[in-house]
């Protein structure tokens, strides 16, 4: 689905969501109140400037105190790779955006990520992965790094990696593998109205971070949950 | 475990950059106080590296446990930058996340994270990436509970990729000259955008753009340390006592701080341009400054000290 | 990855009472060695995981030399190798034994 189709499905009565230079901000009517929307469209890389536009929108939403849901819709490239971005502290700006979303979540705003295109690496962590619950539409393509780049770094032949990717979800790009890892909670049905599906997602939000548990249940990240729990157990027992 | 005994380690003489993760932990904390969780004897190793014909480490490249700092209880995690570049794999990430979650129940005086990482371990990329997101959420939970999370950065792998984002989530950061903080590494930028955008072989450019001095001058880090364990110990003790709250006011202040930084320096090509605009008289001299001279320069930088993190 | 295990009988136990120790780091040209005092006092076992296949004879000689010199009775020694040279392996083994004796 395109962003326009997503917004039309979510807000059949219309909305005030705008896209400027690939950055999505605005609101639409959702149930009895508003829904805030922030995001990235058109496979746009996320740099220092864009991160601060989005974090400003999130903090403004928190400042209203309306506790309305915040949808983080993402079709992005990775973080913007440039000398200028790193000079200006991209790590601070991306972390700031993630913190704004985590603060919103703690301040009573349900935060829902929705990936519908590409997303990768730092841009993924700072946006969709910083929400309380992450949904995806079929065709979304989240990744840490594409396989040709993985091949360069690991010095393994691309066809070997492609073969391994079929049986090893833990390193391979793609939606199915991110679902298996527990990073993506749920895949939505594009043929049904999105509003009711998003509402259902909000209604089932859990207080705990369940991603490692989901990864174990789904088989894409079998040991992370056990390891984290074992550390916590040993810490408690002193 | 022996090798866990620090009797032979002198924190004043031990280079943070050269030390292993274990040596840093032992020399940083009160002698004899460290207790490791999931120690090497438990052999919680990566289930994935053998598929790539790569050797594993008994601790998967991260040491986690509890200790005391000046008698106060702390939780501590230290990444080993020499094993797989300190990268986040599934077990590695799970250990950090578990430690942070444990902090909510144990309520230590602080959580210390000794970063030394290139980011996500590509052989286990999805697990590493998700663990970074989990760690960031857990850090926010810990900070909201009033427990400072302090990052210490000065290892040979620096603090790159998702490690840079976790660092940006911490309450306070201490960094040494060798500590580089960045998202995209020099080689990543060069590979994707070309050597004219970033020449990764130009080491002086790397240090200027991503190194500890630049981060300290623009407020990307809160303390600058000489490259010794005792300097990091002193910085950690100091930073624990002045951690900012995690709330809307802090994040509004950080928003304003970062917006102002981009307004002020957004057209700068090089770190020396930034430093000149910060009022540094002789920007070219910054990389060669010793710790004392640099401290005087920092004291004159209006951007360096703040509670907006 | 190649797995190698060597078992030796020693004339005496390694002195000291330290239950376990670790030394070294898994990195290119380096290795980590985990030592645990869990075997009968006249037994020593050395298990190696190495990414460089075909050097079993060299490992066997290095381990035999170490056992003869250190008499590490009681120790199970586990090695994660990153491609260390034999002299580095010898050095680390002796370092590890010293940590267990302390």
Automatic annotation (TrEMBL), chain A:
Keywords of the record: Lyase
Top-level class of the enzyme under EC nomenclature: lyase
UniProt-listed Gene3D superfamilies: 2-enoyl-CoA Hydratase, Chain A, domain 1
EC number: 4.1.1.87
Pfam families, per the entry: MdcE
GO molecular function: lyase activity
Domain of life: Bacteria
Entries under InterPro entries matching the protein: ClpP/crotonase-like_dom_sf, Malonate_gamma
Protein name from the UniProt record: Malonate decarboxylase gamma subunit
Organism: Methylobacterium fujisawaense
From TrEMBL, chain B:
SUPFAM superfamilies: ClpP/crotonase (SSF52096)
EC code(s) of this entry: 4.1.1.87
PROSITE patterns, per database record: COA_CT_NTER
Keywords: Lyase, Transferase
Any one GO MF annotation of this record: lyase activity
Pfam families associated with the record: Carboxyl_trans
Organism encoding this protein: Methylobacterium fujisawaense
Keyword Lyase part of the UniProt annotation: yes
Name of this chain's protein: Malonate decarboxylase beta subunit
Residue ranges occupied by any CoA carboxyltransferase N-terminal domain in the UniProt entry: 1-248
Broadest EC class assigned to this enzyme: lyase
UniProt xrefs under InterPro entries: AcCoA_carboxyl_beta (IPR034733), ClpP/crotonase-like_dom_sf (IPR029045), COA_CT_N (IPR011762), Malonate_beta (IPR017556)
TrEMBL record, chain C:
Keywords of the record: Cytoplasm, Phosphoprotein
Protein name: Malonate decarboxylase acyl carrier protein
Encoding gene (name): mdcC
Primary localization class, coarse: cytoplasm
Organism: Methylobacterium oryzae CBMB20
Modified residues (O-(phosphoribosyl dephospho-coenzyme A)serine): 28
One of the record's GO cellular component terms: cytoplasm
One family name in Pfam for this protein: ACP
Subcellular localization(s) per the UniProt record: Cytoplasm
PTM comment text: Covalently binds the prosthetic group of malonate decarboxylase.
